[in-house]
Amino acid sequence: MSTAEVVSTSPEETERMGEHLATVLPEGTVVALHGDLATGKTCLVRGMARVFGPSDLVHSPTFTLVNRYGTGPFLYHLDLYRLRGPEETLDLGIEELMAPDGICVVEWAERAEGILPDGCLRLYLEHLGGDKRRISWRAADPAFSAFLEGL
To answer: The CATH number of the domain where 63 resides is what?
Structure first.
């Protein structure tokens, strides 16, 4: 298992990290985001979306549950905050969004445990005070270490 961490000192820096992440991850990657409210998950996704097209409309899809960015390959952005657990997630059919035509990012990923692929990249975001955020990752696939080295 590969693990590492970085500290972001601003929302803009978190967005740049997301942009870098989207440029190095292969299509078909599922990114599971873990973290409390206001830890920078949506900032990270906004940066990732910039690689797929205009990102000024990126917001947390809490009420729509899923947003898709790009024209192909796609970035799928899922926010499972309002769901109670894996059963509700299965009812939505989100496993179809984890297809290899882009990258799938899942906020509140703990609500989809058992549904997410074993090889997904897990990012943990933590508020450190002020604008600082710790972003750590765990990946079962050692290839992710090379992808994430530039963060």
So the answer is: 3.40.50.300
